[in-house]
Amino acid sequence: MSDFQLHPVAATAHAAQVDTLFYCMLALTGTVALALAFLITFFSIKYRKGSNARRDHPPTQNRALELSWMAIPLLLFLGVFGWAAWLYAQAYQPAANAMTVFVVAKQWMWKVQHDNGRREINELHVAVGQPVRLMLASEDVIHSFYVPAFRIKQDVIPGRYTSISFNADRAGTYELYCAVYCGTAHATMEGRVIVMPPADYARWLESGDQADGLSSYGQTLYRQYGCSGCHDAGAGNAPALTGLFGQPVQLADGRRVIADEGWLREAILQPHANRVAGYPPNMPAFAGQLQEEELAALIAYLRRK
Ligand code: HEC
Ligand SMILES: [Cu+2]
């Protein structure tokens, strides 16, 4: 009984805000529900069959009263809506100094790729106070990345990136769940987020089998798949990719996009549906050829290029 909890620990500032919102909504809806229950009971008893309550009230009207019982709850609930929408938007708005971590979900595990090349499975190590932005991809079906202690949950959808941000402010180990039924072993698809003091985190990051950094792995792939042959030749028949990340791109079909992770993904996997204006349509589609991990490495490389 001693570890009974009304809600999971709050390991981010966002989580504490979500809890405040939750308790305000509980108080608001609870008050309305109790008031209605009281009135129903009160009138049921007062006007029960055979009671001698007066039943001959002439009709009366009180416009101010009627307007206020509509307007006040409406404004209160709209306020809650606005508050919740703002909080929700916050969770999707990464801090400028957020660190990007790629996470690939597959039946039935979470695979994590850190920027320095370190990989882990069903574990995600982060530092206290370091804003993190996760780029989530799925290799098979829809999963959902859910960390109750952070009050974040984001669907992971095959064929595109979704992302979510958090900034843990409390060291500890927190449960990670898949929150969408994704097949037989869904219930076992869980992991841990380990939030460490920055110094411990730095030590952790450097320990373990050190693969090359994600972007240098990406650079190797970039040569291996022949990207450099077209893009770095300087011949002018393919756009230069240096400094592209974060810039606006004009597409042949009139769309204008920002070269973020989502755009790079589309441009590499489905170039025919996503052509850059002013270039010949001769980039081969890499859909089905690149693993999610390779794509993440290429994107990490292009971010830096
Ligand atoms: C045969 C030449 C060729 C190869 C090989 C090639 N590309 Fe391209 N790429 C192009 C051309 C041409 C375009 C512009 C037309 C278009 O969008 O299809 C382009 C567009 C792109 C864009 C969009 C650029 C922008 O301005 O937004 C990205 C990103 C990209 N390629 C990455 C890659 C990567 C990564 C590889 C290797 C996995 C690769 N390309 C391989 C020719 C090539
Ligand atoms: Cu799952």
UniProtKB/TrEMBL annotation:
Domain Cytochrome oxidase subunit II copper A binding as annotated: residue spans: 96-207
Biological role: Subunits I and II form the functional core of the enzyme complex. Electrons originating in cytochrome c are transferred via heme a and Cu(A) to the binuclear center formed by heme a3 and Cu(B).
Membrane topology value: Multi-pass membrane protein; Lipid-anchor
Descriptive protein name: Cytochrome c oxidase subunit 2
Any one GO MF annotation of this record: heme binding
Database matches in InterPro entries: CcO_II (IPR045187), CcO_II-like_C (IPR002429), Copper_CuA (IPR001505), Cupredoxin (IPR008972), Cyt_c-like_dom (IPR009056), Cyt_c-like_dom_sf (IPR036909), Cyt_c_oxidase_su2 (IPR014222), Cyt_c_oxidase_su2_TM_dom (IPR011759)
Top class in the EC scheme: translocase
Catalytic reactions of this protein: 4 Fe(II)-[cytochrome c] + O2 + 8 H(+)(in) = 4 Fe(III)-[cytochrome c] + 2 H2O + 4 H(+)(out)
Family statement drawn from the similarity comment of this UniProt entry: Belongs to the cytochrome c oxidase subunit 2 family.
EC number: 7.1.1.9
Cofactor remark: Binds a copper A center.
Keyword line: Copper, Electron transport, Heme, Iron, Membrane, Metal-binding, Oxidoreductase, Respiratory chain, Translocase, Transmembrane, Transmembrane helix, Transport
Name of one Pfam family that matches: COX2_TM
Ranges where the Cytochrome c domain occurs: 208-305
A single cellular component GO annotation: cell outer membrane
Species this protein is from: Amantichitinum ursilacus
